[in-house]
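Worked Example 4.2. Consider the chain below.
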Amino acid sequence: MGAKNCPETPRQKMINMMYIVLTAMLALNVAAEVLEAFRVVDSSLLQTLKAVDMQNAQIYSSFEQAYIDNPTKVGEWKKKADELKTRSAAMIKYVSILKDELVKYSGYKVVNKENPVTSEDYYHVTVDGDTIEIEKEDDLNSPSELMVTQKRANDLKAEIESYRDFVISLINEDDKDLIATISRELNTSDPIQSASKKSNRKTWESEHFEDRPLIAVLTLLSKIQIDVKNAEANIAKYLYSEIDAGSFKFNRLGAQVIANSNIVLMGDTYQADVFLAAEDTTQQPQIFINNKEVEVKDGKATYRGSTERAGVFKWSGLIKYKTPGGIIKSYPFEQEYQVAKPTVTMSASKMNVFYKGLKNPFEVGGGAIPNENLDITMTNGKITKVGDNYVIEPTELDPNQTKTKVSVYATIGGQRRLINTTSWRVKKVPDPVAQIGGQSGGNIRKEVLGIQDGVLAVLVDFDFDFKYTITQFTIETSAEGGFTNRYPSRSNRFTDEQKAALKRVNVNSIVYIGDIKARGDDGIVRDLDPISFKIK
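Applying the procedure from the previous section yields the following C-alpha coordinates:
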Protein backbone atom coordinates (compact mmCIF):
# COMPACT_ATOMS: atom_id res chain seq x y z
CA MET A 1 0.00 0.00 0.00
CA GLY A 2 2.59 2.48 1.13
CA ALA A 3 5.02 2.07 -1.77
CA LYS A 4 2.31 2.55 -4.38
CA ASN A 5 0.83 5.58 -2.65
CA CYS A 6 4.21 7.24 -2.01
CA PRO A 7 6.31 6.87 -5.19
CA GLU A 8 9.68 8.51 -5.61
CA THR A 9 9.22 11.89 -7.32
CA PRO A 10 10.87 12.62 -10.70
CA ARG A 11 12.86 15.40 -8.99
CA GLN A 12 14.21 12.97 -6.41
CA LYS A 13 15.05 10.41 -9.10
CA MET A 14 16.97 13.10 -11.02
CA ILE A 15 18.90 14.17 -7.90
CA ASN A 16 19.80 10.57 -7.07
CA MET A 17 21.03 9.98 -10.63
CA MET A 18 23.07 13.22 -10.63
CA TYR A 19 24.74 12.19 -7.35
CA ILE A 20 25.69 8.78 -8.78
CA VAL A 21 27.14 10.36 -11.95
CA LEU A 22 29.07 12.99 -10.00
CA THR A 23 30.45 10.38 -7.61
CA ALA A 24 31.66 8.35 -10.58
CA MET A 25 33.35 11.44 -12.05
CA LEU A 26 35.28 11.90 -8.79
CA ALA A 27 37.20 8.73 -9.58
CA LEU A 28 38.60 10.46 -12.65
CA ASN A 29 39.29 13.98 -11.50
CA VAL A 30 38.16 16.48 -8.83
CA ALA A 31 37.61 19.23 -11.39
CA ALA A 32 36.14 22.61 -10.56
CA GLU A 33 33.14 21.79 -12.73
CA VAL A 34 32.46 18.64 -10.69
CA LEU A 35 32.70 20.55 -7.41
CA GLU A 36 30.34 23.20 -8.74
CA ALA A 37 27.91 20.48 -9.83
CA PHE A 38 27.95 19.06 -6.31
CA ARG A 39 27.15 22.52 -4.96
CA VAL A 40 24.13 22.72 -7.27
CA VAL A 41 22.91 19.24 -6.28
CA ASP A 42 23.37 20.00 -2.56
CA SER A 43 21.41 23.23 -2.90
CA SER A 44 18.62 21.38 -4.71
CA LEU A 45 18.59 18.68 -2.03
CA LEU A 46 18.18 21.27 0.72
CA GLN A 47 15.26 22.84 -1.17
CA THR A 48 13.67 19.42 -1.59
CA LEU A 49 14.17 18.78 2.14
CA LYS A 50 12.12 21.89 2.96
CA ALA A 51 9.39 20.89 0.50
CA VAL A 52 9.05 17.36 1.93
CA ASP A 53 9.08 18.79 5.47
CA MET A 54 6.12 21.01 4.57
CA GLN A 55 4.22 18.01 3.19
CA ASN A 56 4.91 16.07 6.38
CA ALA A 57 3.68 19.01 8.46
CA GLN A 58 0.35 18.86 6.61
CA ILE A 59 -0.03 15.16 7.41
CA TYR A 60 0.69 15.73 11.11
CA SER A 61 -1.82 18.59 11.09
CA SER A 62 -4.42 16.16 9.69
CA PHE A 63 -3.62 13.79 12.57
CA GLU A 64 -4.23 16.59 15.08
CA GLN A 65 -7.61 17.44 13.58
CA ALA A 66 -8.64 13.78 13.33
CA TYR A 67 -7.68 13.26 16.99
CA ILE A 68 -9.79 16.24 18.07
CA ASP A 69 -12.76 14.82 16.16
CA ASN A 70 -12.37 11.25 17.46
CA PRO A 71 -9.64 10.71 20.09
CA THR A 72 -10.69 7.12 20.79
CA LYS A 73 -10.43 6.06 17.17
CA VAL A 74 -7.32 8.07 16.28
CA GLY A 75 -5.36 7.85 19.54
CA GLU A 76 -3.35 4.72 18.73
CA TRP A 77 -2.24 5.98 15.31
CA LYS A 78 -1.53 9.53 16.49
CA LYS A 79 0.76 8.18 19.21
CA LYS A 80 2.78 6.31 16.57
CA ALA A 81 2.82 9.39 14.32
CA ASP A 82 4.09 11.57 17.19
CA GLU A 83 6.91 9.11 17.88
CA LEU A 84 7.73 9.00 14.15
CA LYS A 85 7.91 12.81 14.07
CA THR A 86 10.23 12.92 17.11
CA ARG A 87 12.57 10.17 15.89
CA SER A 88 12.76 11.66 12.38
CA ALA A 89 13.57 15.15 13.69
CA ALA A 90 16.31 13.66 15.89
CA MET A 91 17.80 11.79 12.91
CA ILE A 92 17.78 14.92 10.73
CA LYS A 93 19.44 16.92 13.52
CA TYR A 94 22.08 14.21 14.03
CA VAL A 95 23.11 14.43 10.37
CA SER A 96 23.05 18.26 10.50
CA ILE A 97 25.41 18.26 13.51
CA LEU A 98 27.69 15.85 11.65
CA LYS A 99 27.78 18.32 8.73
CA ASP A 100 28.78 21.09 11.16
CA GLU A 101 31.61 18.95 12.54
CA LEU A 102 32.91 18.14 9.06
CA VAL A 103 32.98 21.77 7.96
CA LYS A 104 34.66 22.93 11.17
CA TYR A 105 37.13 20.04 11.08
CA SER A 106 38.18 20.96 7.54
CA GLY A 107 38.43 24.69 8.17
CA TYR A 108 36.02 27.59 7.97
CA LYS A 109 35.57 31.31 8.33
CA VAL A 110 32.79 33.03 10.25
CA VAL A 111 30.64 35.15 7.93
CA ASN A 112 30.32 38.70 9.23
CA LYS A 113 30.76 42.29 8.07
CA GLU A 114 34.51 41.80 7.76
CA ASN A 115 34.02 38.53 5.84
CA PRO A 116 30.77 38.83 3.86
CA VAL A 117 29.44 36.07 1.60
CA THR A 118 29.97 36.58 -2.13
CA SER A 119 28.48 34.76 -5.11
CA GLU A 120 31.69 32.74 -5.49
CA ASP A 121 31.81 31.53 -1.88
CA TYR A 122 30.40 28.24 -0.66
CA TYR A 123 28.86 28.61 2.77
CA HIS A 124 27.12 26.41 5.29
CA VAL A 125 24.40 27.20 7.83
CA THR A 126 24.94 25.39 11.14
CA VAL A 127 22.33 23.86 13.42
CA ASP A 128 22.61 26.96 15.64
CA GLY A 129 21.82 29.20 12.65
CA ASP A 130 25.35 30.57 12.13
CA THR A 131 26.59 31.07 8.58
CA ILE A 132 30.17 29.93 8.00
CA GLU A 133 32.28 29.96 4.84
CA ILE A 134 33.84 26.65 3.77
CA GLU A 135 37.53 27.21 3.03
CA LYS A 136 38.33 23.98 1.16
CA GLU A 137 35.34 22.35 -0.48
CA ASP A 138 37.74 20.02 -2.37
CA ASP A 139 39.39 18.83 0.88
CA LEU A 140 40.00 15.06 0.54
CA ASN A 141 41.82 14.42 3.81
CA SER A 142 39.55 15.78 6.55
CA PRO A 143 36.39 13.84 5.58
CA SER A 144 38.34 10.58 5.34
CA GLU A 145 40.05 11.16 8.68
CA LEU A 146 36.92 12.16 10.59
CA MET A 147 34.46 9.73 9.02
CA VAL A 148 36.63 6.66 8.35
CA THR A 149 39.68 6.84 10.62
CA GLN A 150 37.78 8.24 13.60
CA LYS A 151 34.82 5.97 12.74
CA ARG A 152 32.12 8.64 12.68
CA ALA A 153 30.75 6.88 9.60
CA ASN A 154 30.27 3.74 11.72
CA ASP A 155 28.21 5.79 14.18
CA LEU A 156 26.17 7.28 11.33
CA LYS A 157 25.50 3.83 9.89
CA ALA A 158 24.29 2.61 13.29
CA GLU A 159 21.95 5.59 13.62
CA ILE A 160 20.48 4.99 10.15
CA GLU A 161 19.96 1.30 10.86
CA SER A 162 18.31 2.07 14.21
CA TYR A 163 15.98 4.57 12.57
CA ARG A 164 15.21 2.14 9.72
CA ASP A 165 14.34 -0.65 12.16
CA PHE A 166 12.08 1.68 14.11
CA VAL A 167 10.26 2.86 10.98
CA ILE A 168 9.74 -0.69 9.69
CA SER A 169 8.38 -1.69 13.11
CA LEU A 170 5.45 0.69 12.47
CA ILE A 171 4.42 -1.19 9.31
CA ASN A 172 2.15 -4.21 9.19
CA GLU A 173 4.24 -7.18 8.04
CA ASP A 174 1.75 -7.79 5.20
CA ASP A 175 2.71 -4.46 3.58
CA LYS A 176 5.81 -5.89 1.93
CA ASP A 177 5.99 -3.21 -0.80
CA LEU A 178 6.28 -0.40 1.75
CA ILE A 179 8.83 -2.35 3.79
CA ALA A 180 10.90 -2.87 0.63
CA THR A 181 10.68 0.85 -0.18
CA ILE A 182 11.93 1.87 3.28
CA SER A 183 14.72 -0.73 3.21
CA ARG A 184 15.88 0.54 -0.18
CA GLU A 185 15.79 4.22 0.84
CA LEU A 186 17.75 3.60 4.05
CA ASN A 187 20.09 0.90 2.75
CA THR A 188 23.48 0.67 4.54
CA SER A 189 24.76 -2.64 3.18
CA ASP A 190 28.30 -2.94 1.84
CA PRO A 191 28.71 -2.64 -1.96
CA ILE A 192 28.74 -5.85 -3.99
CA GLN A 193 32.18 -6.61 -5.45
CA SER A 194 33.62 -9.26 -7.69
CA ALA A 195 35.51 -12.26 -6.26
CA SER A 196 38.79 -10.89 -7.62
CA LYS A 197 38.59 -7.88 -5.27
CA LYS A 198 38.05 -9.72 -2.01
CA SER A 199 41.46 -8.64 -0.71
CA ASN A 200 40.43 -4.99 -0.97
CA ARG A 201 36.74 -5.21 -0.14
CA LYS A 202 34.98 -1.89 0.42
CA THR A 203 32.52 -1.21 3.20
CA TRP A 204 29.54 1.14 3.19
CA GLU A 205 31.64 3.59 5.19
CA SER A 206 34.68 3.58 2.87
CA GLU A 207 32.51 3.57 -0.26
CA HIS A 208 30.83 6.83 0.71
CA PHE A 209 33.41 8.75 2.74
CA GLU A 210 36.94 7.62 1.91
CA ASP A 211 38.88 9.85 -0.49
CA ARG A 212 35.81 11.98 -1.18
CA PRO A 213 36.04 15.79 -1.29
CA LEU A 214 34.24 17.69 1.43
CA ILE A 215 31.51 19.02 -0.89
CA ALA A 216 30.69 15.47 -2.05
CA VAL A 217 30.40 14.24 1.54
CA LEU A 218 28.14 17.17 2.49
CA THR A 219 25.96 16.44 -0.53
CA LEU A 220 25.74 12.77 0.46
CA LEU A 221 24.67 13.74 3.98
CA SER A 222 21.98 16.01 2.50
CA LYS A 223 20.80 13.04 0.42
CA ILE A 224 20.61 10.91 3.58
CA GLN A 225 18.45 13.61 5.17
CA ILE A 226 16.15 13.53 2.12
CA ASP A 227 15.94 9.72 2.39
CA VAL A 228 14.95 10.06 6.05
CA LYS A 229 12.30 12.68 5.22
CA ASN A 230 10.91 10.53 2.39
CA ALA A 231 10.72 7.53 4.71
CA GLU A 232 8.95 9.70 7.29
CA ALA A 233 6.47 10.90 4.65
CA ASN A 234 5.72 7.35 3.49
CA ILE A 235 5.11 6.10 7.03
CA ALA A 236 3.08 9.15 8.08
CA LYS A 237 0.76 8.66 5.10
CA TYR A 238 0.58 4.94 5.84
CA LEU A 239 -0.37 5.54 9.50
CA TYR A 240 -3.01 8.10 8.52
CA SER A 241 -4.56 5.69 6.03
CA GLU A 242 -4.82 3.06 8.77
CA ILE A 243 -7.22 5.24 10.77
CA ASP A 244 -10.08 4.55 8.38
CA ALA A 245 -8.99 1.11 7.20
CA GLY A 246 -12.24 -0.32 8.56
CA SER A 247 -15.83 0.62 7.77
CA PHE A 248 -17.58 3.53 9.48
CA LYS A 249 -20.27 2.63 12.00
CA PHE A 250 -22.97 5.17 12.88
CA ASN A 251 -24.09 5.23 16.49
CA ARG A 252 -26.45 8.23 16.53
CA LEU A 253 -28.62 10.41 14.33
CA GLY A 254 -27.93 14.07 13.74
CA ALA A 255 -29.07 17.01 11.64
CA GLN A 256 -26.73 17.78 8.75
CA VAL A 257 -26.54 20.89 6.57
CA ILE A 258 -24.35 21.00 3.46
CA ALA A 259 -24.16 24.36 1.68
CA ASN A 260 -22.68 25.05 -1.74
CA SER A 261 -20.61 27.69 0.07
CA ASN A 262 -20.84 29.64 3.31
CA ILE A 263 -19.58 32.73 1.47
CA VAL A 264 -21.42 33.87 -1.67
CA LEU A 265 -21.26 36.97 -3.83
CA MET A 266 -24.06 39.47 -4.21
CA GLY A 267 -26.45 38.35 -6.92
CA ASP A 268 -25.59 34.66 -6.57
CA THR A 269 -27.69 31.98 -4.85
CA TYR A 270 -26.97 30.59 -1.41
CA GLN A 271 -28.10 26.98 -1.39
CA ALA A 272 -27.87 24.29 1.29
CA ASP A 273 -29.11 20.73 1.68
CA VAL A 274 -30.61 19.75 5.03
CA PHE A 275 -30.93 16.06 5.95
CA LEU A 276 -30.72 13.51 8.68
CA ALA A 277 -27.29 11.92 8.97
CA ALA A 278 -28.62 8.34 8.88
CA GLU A 279 -31.20 7.86 6.16
CA ASP A 280 -34.17 5.55 6.55
CA THR A 281 -35.73 4.68 3.17
CA THR A 282 -39.00 3.52 4.82
CA GLN A 283 -39.98 6.99 5.99
CA GLN A 284 -39.21 10.66 5.37
CA PRO A 285 -38.33 13.06 8.22
CA GLN A 286 -40.16 16.34 8.76
CA ILE A 287 -37.92 19.36 8.19
CA PHE A 288 -38.72 22.89 9.34
CA ILE A 289 -36.64 25.89 8.21
CA ASN A 290 -37.19 29.24 9.89
CA ASN A 291 -40.33 27.81 11.55
CA LYS A 292 -41.86 26.68 8.22
CA GLU A 293 -42.18 23.09 7.07
CA VAL A 294 -40.49 22.52 3.70
CA GLU A 295 -40.64 19.83 1.04
CA VAL A 296 -38.47 16.75 1.64
CA LYS A 297 -37.20 14.59 -1.22
CA ASP A 298 -34.94 11.56 -0.75
CA GLY A 299 -34.51 12.51 2.87
CA LYS A 300 -33.29 16.04 2.04
CA ALA A 301 -34.69 19.54 1.96
CA THR A 302 -33.14 22.49 0.10
CA TYR A 303 -32.90 26.02 1.48
CA ARG A 304 -32.16 29.03 -0.76
CA GLY A 305 -31.15 32.22 1.02
CA SER A 306 -31.23 35.80 -0.18
CA THR A 307 -28.04 37.40 -1.59
CA GLU A 308 -29.42 40.82 -2.53
CA ARG A 309 -27.24 42.67 -0.03
CA ALA A 310 -23.91 42.14 1.67
CA GLY A 311 -23.72 40.90 5.23
CA VAL A 312 -23.93 37.86 7.50
CA PHE A 313 -27.26 36.03 7.56
CA LYS A 314 -28.36 33.37 10.06
CA TRP A 315 -30.98 30.69 9.59
CA SER A 316 -32.13 27.72 11.62
CA GLY A 317 -34.43 24.76 11.56
CA LEU A 318 -35.58 21.52 13.05
CA ILE A 319 -35.70 17.91 11.87
CA LYS A 320 -38.34 15.61 13.35
CA TYR A 321 -37.95 11.86 13.02
CA LYS A 322 -39.99 8.93 14.32
CA THR A 323 -37.94 6.15 15.89
CA PRO A 324 -38.80 2.45 15.48
CA GLY A 325 -40.43 2.68 18.93
CA GLY A 326 -42.80 5.38 17.69
CA ILE A 327 -41.14 8.23 19.60
CA ILE A 328 -40.73 11.56 17.78
CA LYS A 329 -37.23 12.96 18.23
CA SER A 330 -36.19 16.46 17.25
CA TYR A 331 -32.78 17.53 15.93
CA PRO A 332 -32.34 21.32 15.80
CA PHE A 333 -29.63 23.10 13.77
CA GLU A 334 -28.34 26.62 13.17
CA GLN A 335 -26.32 27.95 10.24
CA GLU A 336 -25.07 31.22 8.86
CA TYR A 337 -23.68 32.42 5.57
CA GLN A 338 -21.93 35.56 4.39
CA VAL A 339 -22.76 37.60 1.31
CA ALA A 340 -19.77 39.54 -0.03
CA LYS A 341 -19.23 41.96 -2.86
CA PRO A 342 -17.11 40.53 -5.72
CA THR A 343 -13.79 42.30 -5.03
CA VAL A 344 -10.20 41.27 -5.58
CA THR A 345 -6.87 42.87 -4.72
CA MET A 346 -3.67 42.61 -6.72
CA SER A 347 -0.19 43.72 -5.70
CA ALA A 348 3.37 43.24 -6.84
CA SER A 349 5.17 41.68 -3.89
CA LYS A 350 8.27 43.88 -4.23
CA MET A 351 7.22 47.21 -5.80
CA ASN A 352 4.37 48.82 -7.75
CA VAL A 353 6.00 48.07 -11.11
CA PHE A 354 7.21 45.04 -13.05
CA TYR A 355 10.79 44.72 -14.29
CA LYS A 356 11.63 43.22 -17.65
CA GLY A 357 14.02 40.29 -17.39
CA LEU A 358 13.00 39.46 -13.80
CA LYS A 359 10.64 36.99 -12.20
CA ASN A 360 8.41 39.52 -10.46
CA PRO A 361 6.60 38.12 -7.38
CA PHE A 362 2.88 38.88 -7.55
CA GLU A 363 0.13 38.39 -4.99
CA VAL A 364 -3.61 38.17 -5.53
CA GLY A 365 -6.19 38.22 -2.75
CA GLY A 366 -9.73 37.23 -3.62
CA GLY A 367 -11.25 38.39 -0.36
CA ALA A 368 -14.17 36.03 0.14
CA ILE A 369 -13.30 34.07 -3.01
CA PRO A 370 -11.03 31.05 -2.40
CA ASN A 371 -7.66 31.32 -4.17
CA GLU A 372 -8.20 28.00 -5.93
CA ASN A 373 -11.19 29.57 -7.72
CA LEU A 374 -9.09 32.41 -9.18
CA ASP A 375 -7.53 32.47 -12.65
CA ILE A 376 -4.97 35.19 -13.49
CA THR A 377 -4.08 36.30 -17.04
CA MET A 378 -1.97 39.12 -18.43
CA THR A 379 -0.98 40.91 -21.61
CA ASN A 380 2.65 41.72 -22.50
CA GLY A 381 4.18 38.73 -20.75
CA LYS A 382 3.39 35.51 -18.97
CA ILE A 383 2.23 34.67 -15.46
CA THR A 384 3.08 31.48 -13.58
CA LYS A 385 1.54 30.21 -10.36
CA VAL A 386 4.05 29.34 -7.64
CA GLY A 387 2.37 27.98 -4.50
CA ASP A 388 -0.34 30.41 -3.43
CA ASN A 389 1.22 33.35 -5.30
CA TYR A 390 2.38 34.12 -8.84
CA VAL A 391 5.43 35.18 -10.86
CA ILE A 392 5.13 37.85 -13.58
CA GLU A 393 7.62 37.89 -16.50
CA PRO A 394 6.97 40.89 -18.82
CA THR A 395 7.92 40.71 -22.50
CA GLU A 396 8.39 44.39 -23.45
CA LEU A 397 9.06 47.66 -21.65
CA ASP A 398 5.92 49.65 -20.88
CA PRO A 399 6.77 52.74 -18.78
CA ASN A 400 3.38 54.37 -19.49
CA GLN A 401 1.35 51.22 -18.58
CA THR A 402 -0.51 51.24 -21.90
CA LYS A 403 -0.25 47.56 -22.86
CA THR A 404 0.41 45.64 -19.65
CA LYS A 405 -2.81 44.51 -18.02
CA VAL A 406 -3.41 41.84 -15.39
CA SER A 407 -6.92 40.38 -15.21
CA VAL A 408 -8.43 38.26 -12.47
CA TYR A 409 -11.22 35.80 -13.23
CA ALA A 410 -13.14 33.82 -10.63
CA THR A 411 -15.16 30.63 -10.96
CA ILE A 412 -18.37 31.32 -9.04
CA GLY A 413 -21.29 28.95 -9.12
CA GLY A 414 -19.69 27.03 -11.97
CA GLN A 415 -19.28 30.15 -14.12
CA ARG A 416 -16.07 32.04 -14.99
CA ARG A 417 -16.35 35.78 -14.29
CA LEU A 418 -14.03 38.74 -14.80
CA ILE A 419 -13.53 40.32 -11.38
CA ASN A 420 -10.93 43.02 -11.95
CA THR A 421 -8.33 44.31 -14.44
CA THR A 422 -5.40 46.58 -13.57
CA SER A 423 -2.67 48.27 -15.62
CA TRP A 424 1.03 48.12 -14.70
CA ARG A 425 4.25 49.79 -15.73
CA VAL A 426 7.14 47.71 -17.04
CA LYS A 427 10.61 49.17 -16.51
CA LYS A 428 14.10 47.94 -17.11
CA VAL A 429 16.28 46.96 -14.18
CA PRO A 430 18.19 50.10 -13.08
CA ASP A 431 21.90 50.45 -13.80
CA PRO A 432 24.25 49.54 -10.98
CA VAL A 433 27.05 51.73 -9.69
CA ALA A 434 30.69 50.71 -9.76
CA GLN A 435 32.34 50.30 -6.38
CA ILE A 436 35.76 49.48 -5.00
CA GLY A 437 35.92 48.51 -1.36
CA GLY A 438 32.30 49.63 -0.90
CA GLN A 439 33.00 53.14 -2.29
CA SER A 440 31.95 54.77 -5.55
CA GLY A 441 34.60 57.46 -5.38
CA GLY A 442 36.09 59.96 -2.96
CA ASN A 443 39.09 59.64 -0.69
CA ILE A 444 40.65 56.22 -0.14
CA ARG A 445 43.78 55.14 1.68
CA LYS A 446 46.46 53.63 -0.52
CA GLU A 447 46.78 50.50 1.62
CA VAL A 448 42.99 49.97 1.49
CA LEU A 449 42.97 50.27 -2.29
CA GLY A 450 45.93 47.92 -2.53
CA ILE A 451 44.13 44.99 -0.90
CA GLN A 452 41.06 45.11 -3.16
CA ASP A 453 40.55 42.41 -5.78
CA GLY A 454 38.70 44.43 -8.39
CA VAL A 455 35.57 46.40 -9.23
CA LEU A 456 32.03 45.43 -8.18
CA ALA A 457 28.71 46.44 -9.75
CA VAL A 458 26.20 47.19 -6.98
CA LEU A 459 22.44 47.83 -7.26
CA VAL A 460 21.62 50.37 -4.58
CA ASP A 461 18.23 50.13 -2.81
CA PHE A 462 16.87 47.46 -5.19
CA ASP A 463 14.76 44.77 -3.53
CA PHE A 464 15.12 42.01 -6.11
CA ASP A 465 17.80 39.33 -6.09
CA PHE A 466 19.43 40.57 -9.30
CA LYS A 467 23.19 40.75 -9.83
CA TYR A 468 25.57 42.48 -12.20
CA THR A 469 29.11 41.39 -13.01
CA ILE A 470 31.77 43.78 -14.27
CA THR A 471 33.09 42.59 -17.64
CA GLN A 472 35.73 45.29 -18.28
CA PHE A 473 37.19 48.51 -16.89
CA THR A 474 40.24 50.74 -17.36
CA ILE A 475 42.40 52.34 -14.66
CA GLU A 476 44.08 55.67 -15.41
CA THR A 477 46.88 57.02 -13.23
CA SER A 478 49.09 60.13 -13.49
CA ALA A 479 52.69 59.69 -14.63
CA GLU A 480 55.69 62.02 -14.59
CA GLY A 481 55.54 64.87 -17.04
CA GLY A 482 51.76 65.14 -16.84
CA PHE A 483 51.14 62.01 -18.88
CA THR A 484 48.36 59.54 -18.14
CA ASN A 485 48.88 55.78 -18.05
CA ARG A 486 45.95 53.50 -18.97
CA TYR A 487 45.67 49.90 -17.76
CA PRO A 488 42.69 47.88 -19.08
CA SER A 489 41.10 44.76 -17.58
CA ARG A 490 38.73 42.40 -19.38
CA SER A 491 37.11 41.09 -16.21
CA ASN A 492 35.99 42.37 -12.84
CA ARG A 493 39.42 41.78 -11.26
CA PHE A 494 42.56 43.86 -11.20
CA THR A 495 45.25 42.62 -13.57
CA ASP A 496 48.82 42.22 -12.36
CA GLU A 497 49.70 45.34 -14.34
CA GLN A 498 46.92 47.30 -12.63
CA LYS A 499 47.97 46.09 -9.17
CA ALA A 500 51.55 47.18 -9.86
CA ALA A 501 50.32 50.60 -11.04
CA LEU A 502 48.23 51.06 -7.89
CA LYS A 503 51.27 50.32 -5.74
CA ARG A 504 53.17 53.11 -7.53
CA VAL A 505 50.56 55.87 -7.14
CA ASN A 506 51.45 58.78 -4.91
CA VAL A 507 49.46 60.24 -2.06
CA ASN A 508 47.05 63.01 -3.19
CA SER A 509 47.08 61.69 -6.75
CA ILE A 510 43.89 60.71 -8.58
CA VAL A 511 43.03 57.21 -9.77
CA TYR A 512 40.35 57.22 -12.46
CA ILE A 513 38.33 54.10 -13.41
CA GLY A 514 36.43 54.34 -16.69
CA ASP A 515 35.22 52.28 -19.69
CA ILE A 516 33.21 50.24 -17.16
CA LYS A 517 30.80 47.64 -18.50
CA ALA A 518 28.65 45.22 -16.51
CA ARG A 519 26.49 42.27 -17.53
CA GLY A 520 23.27 41.62 -15.60
CA ASP A 521 21.54 38.33 -14.84
CA ASP A 522 19.31 39.09 -17.82
CA GLY A 523 22.36 38.96 -20.14
CA ILE A 524 22.24 42.68 -21.02
CA VAL A 525 25.52 44.63 -20.85
CA ARG A 526 25.33 48.16 -19.40
CA ASP A 527 27.82 51.06 -19.61
CA LEU A 528 28.44 52.38 -16.09
CA ASP A 529 29.47 55.85 -14.99
CA PRO A 530 33.20 56.26 -14.25
CA ILE A 531 34.46 56.62 -10.70
CA SER A 532 37.60 58.27 -9.30
CA PHE A 533 39.51 58.19 -6.04
CA LYS A 534 41.95 60.55 -4.35
CA ILE A 535 44.78 58.62 -2.70
CA LYS A 536 45.30 59.37 1.00
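Confidence is low (pLDDT under 50) at residues 1-7, 25-30, 246-252. The first strand starts at residue 108 and ends at 110. Compare this with Example 4.1 before moving on.
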